[in-house]
Amino acid sequence: MIALGCDHAGYPLKEALKGYLDSIGRTYTDFGTYSEESVDYPIYAAKAAHAVADGTCECGILCCGTGIGISIAANKVKGIRAAVCSDAYSTEMTRLHNNANILCMGARVISEEKAIELAQIFLNTPALNEERHQRRVKMLEDIENGKL
Ligand code: RB5
């Protein structure tokens, strides 16, 4: 199950991503928002991020105007590693090296076609099973727990 969320600016991109996920048979929970009426992105980031953090959803995809605000908000939730991406290389690397669990994208930055390409990469790239990367991801938890 994939957690989806967006604000008003990201709404068209989220809808395009739902069409892509439907076409490949991937299930998702849409945490809103559900229109282009102006809303506050932290609300939707929090809903989706909590679902990923508590294991209800295996990962998430969030959209706002730039992808930045909604990623900052998602990263406030313990256990979330949300990455803003606008290119294929960064998207692949944030799965391989950072084990990112939420992909954030900007509807005012990239096209729907690019967002679908990046979602495909994000969903199909496993985290590398290498000690140095796992050690660094563990250190992110250490920061959350006040140990670093
Ligand atoms: C909304 O206008 C815009 O500020 C928001 O979608 C996002 O880009 C914030 O980071």
Distance N to C terminus: 32 Å
DSSP strand tally = 5
Write down the overall mean pLDDT: 98
What ligands can be seen in this structure? D-ribose
Radius of gyration: 14 Å
The CATH class label is Alpha Beta
| Count of separate DSSP helical elements | 6
User: How many separate domains make up the residues?
Assistant: 1
Q: What is the CATH topology?
A: Ribose 5-phosphate Isomerase B, Chain: A
Strand order of the largest sheet: 2-1-3-5-4
CATH architecture: 3-Layer(aba) Sandwich
Q: How would you name the CATH homologous superfamily? A: Sugar-phosphate isomerase, RpiB/LacA/LacB
Low-confidence stretches: none
Can you give the helix content as a percent range?
40-55%
The string of secondary-structure elements, in order, is EHEHEHEHEHH
Strand content: 5-15%
Shape field: globular
**Biggest sheet: strands, sense, closure?**
5 strands, parallel
Structure overview:
The protein has 148 residues and is an alpha/beta fold. The protein has one domain: Ribose 5-phosphate Isomerase B, Chain: A, CATH 3.40.1400.10. It has a five-stranded parallel sheet, with helices on both faces. Helix 1 packs across helix 5. It is globular, with a radius of gyration of 14 Å. The mean pLDDT is 98. Bound molecules: D-ribose.
Chain-wise SSE layout:
Blueprint: E1 2-6, H1 11-23, E2 28-30, H2 41-53, E3 59-64, H3 68-74, E4 82-84, H4 88-96, E5 102-106, H5 112-124, H6 131-144
D-ribose is lined by residues 7, 9, 41, 64-66, 68-69.
